[in-house]
Amino acid sequence: MVWHLRKCVKCGNYTLNQKMCPLCNQSVRIPHPPKFSPHDKYLKYRMNIKEEQITT
Ligand SMILES: [Zn+2]
């Protein structure tokens, strides 16, 4: 998925226009990208391994 979408700061309209909202001519921002937390995933994985080692 390519993040060329912009979100209008005023009306919240999503647009491919990089400079301004086509509806109200307000500036646009990059919408919040989905949060990736690979570090947390690995941490959980490692914790699970630790727990397994403790129980065995
Ligand atoms: Zn707008």
Structure description:
The protein is of the alpha+beta class and 56 residues long. It has a single domain (6-55), classed as Rubrerythrin, domain 2 (Single Sheet). 32% of the residues lie in helices and 12% in strands. It has one helix and three strands, in the order βββα. It has one helix at residues 38-55; strands at 6-8, 14-15, 28-29. The protein has a three-stranded antiparallel β-sheet, with no helix packed on it. Strand 1 and strand 2 form a beta hairpin. The model has no long low-confidence stretch (mean pLDDT 80). The protein binds zinc ion. The site of zinc ion has 8 residues, from loops.
List strands and helices in order, with pairings.
Layout: E1 6-8, E2 14-15, E3 28-29, H1 38-55
Zinc ion binds at residues 8, 10-11, 13, 21, 23-24, 26.
Briefly summarize what is shown.
This protein is an alpha+beta fold. It is 32% helix and 12% strand. The mean pLDDT is 80.
